[in-house]
Amino acid sequence: MNIVVCVKVVPKVDQVKFDPATKTVDRTSAENELNEADKNALETALQLKEKHGGKVAVVSMGPPFFEPFLKICVAMGADDAVLLSDKAFAGADTYATSYVLAQAVKKLKPDLVLCGESTSDSGTAQVPAQMAEWLGYPNISYASNVSVDNGFVVARRTVKGGYEVVKAPLPAVVSVELGSNTPRFPDFRRKRWAEREFKTTVWTSADLELDLSLAGRAGSKTDVVELQSIAPPQRLRKFLEGSEDEIAQTILEIIKEAVTE
Amino acid sequence: MGEIWTFVEIGPEGVEDVSLEIMGRAAALAAESGRKTAAVVTGWKVDEIVQETAKYPVDKVFHVDHSTLVTYDPSKHAKALHQLVEKEKPEMIFFGATYTGADIASRLAVRTGAGLIAHVTYLGIDPVDGRLVGHVPGFGGSIVAVCKCRPNTLQIATVRPGVFEKPKTTNKTAEVVKFTPSLDPAEPGWIILDRKVAKTVDVTRAEKVVVAGMGTGGDLTLVKKLADRLGAQLAVTRPLADIGVAPRDVQVGSTGISLRSKAALVLGVSGASHFVSGIQDVKTVISVNTDRNAPIFQFSDYCVQADLFKIVPKLIEHAEKGGG
């Protein structure tokens, strides 16, 4: 049972600054972290490996600064880490991103591909399903309770108002729901080993079978034509003072008035 | 100019509201730009859904019927839609940004080489170049990316539920066009082993909402009682949905729903940027937090610095006396 886990490094959302004058996002001032849901995907993979054996490889497409974060995945228990890094991959939308990731998956030939449900920076949740389409695999999104049995994956998929338990043939792409498990902490000794001795595999466009017209900005099908900051609505910001009884009565009056207006 | 299509998603109670909301928007865009609209229903034995859809403002309903479309296996539905797209060559297709809609839209975009704009909160057509414009909230909802698809591609967008008004039915019935895709029933795909779906309340349209945050400690008993007394719906912040005390359907913020209520009583919420984008359309916001410097007070009309465990019982008591 070999598993590929796709991960992404994202800026901490609350630290990203937007410059309304230049209409650009400054990510440099923000600290980076592994996308939260991707850790749930990795934890799922490690639990499946403990049960069924095999290897877990993490794969990420991004610039060289992603590498230390891939080593955190290795410290958590991943056997290998592959960074897909090339200027030709830059500026990709989800179409071009999912294409390059899919080509890397084709080279690794896993039984199962796991992703986080979405990323905290753009949050489109499109890449897992798009990758599955490039690969011709079935996909299950927003999954928890992922198990593997006799050539099939079974997962509980969140739907509006509840869930479905879906069975699909392997190989498949499954995106794991945020918070669906508790990701383990990196093992201290393994962490030291990962930082000092482990070698991350770096693949450029030359290492993959690629039609470069489908990768990066050139291969993208969408463009961001402008960024706008959203001005929050003006609020009264009035503090209510008084006894708890008085405040409670005032709140009820305010609600009543808001509804009848 | 080509047609604007809406993918019709089928829920436990018929056509999902989000599909109708999008159909309404598609009809308005078509009217102002001289285009035609169509709605696409994919499934197996879905005649009733097709009939229901045809009552809404749309020029045509495609009825895509096949036994392999009995589940929402995104791979099968994308294949069926791809065949219809090849035949009819629409210009734009809108999907609900739902668990099901987003998956099918993603796969269809790759199959057709289409541009896909995700989770839009606004849809328009650029009057100059005639191309689709979608607004995508990012970075916790504080920034909006104005997105367009590249020229000469099919333009697809997924639309957040609750953004557009649900249209009324018309007194005409739209033309129904049946399409039978060529799909192999023997090809492996999804098998549904179990399903549990409860009826959901559309919190985005509720008049009064009580929103619970981590300040409640995760026990919603008291807050639920208050919501009940006030005749309000209950919603939560993402951390509470993460720990599973409430479903994602009632999670407020940029990764969840946007409230449009007249009044929201926000209890024990700190006010992170990804949360406050979900209350910006609420008319009156009242917040209770123990920390006078909590960011939530910047986004509130009425601020109460107090322990919610003291205020909520008083609210219940006074509401029961008829004060609410």
From TrEMBL, chain B:
Gene3D superfamilies: HUPs (3.40.50.620), TPP-binding domain (3.40.50.1220). Residues 4-192 form the Electron transfer flavoprotein alpha/beta-subunit N-terminal domain. One of its GO terms (molecular function) is electron transfer activity. GO terms for biological process: fatty acid beta-oxidation using acyl-CoA dehydrogenase. Pfam families: ETF, ETF_alpha. PANTHER family: ELECTRON TRANSFER FLAVOPROTEIN ALPHA, ELECTRON TRANSFER FLAVOPROTEIN SUBUNIT ALPHA, MITOCHONDRIAL. Belongs to the ETF alpha-subunit/FixB family. This is Electron transfer flavoprotein subunit alpha/FixB family protein. The lineage of its organism: Archaea, Nitrososphaerota, Candidatus Caldarchaeales, Candidatus Caldarchaeaceae, Candidatus Caldarchaeum.
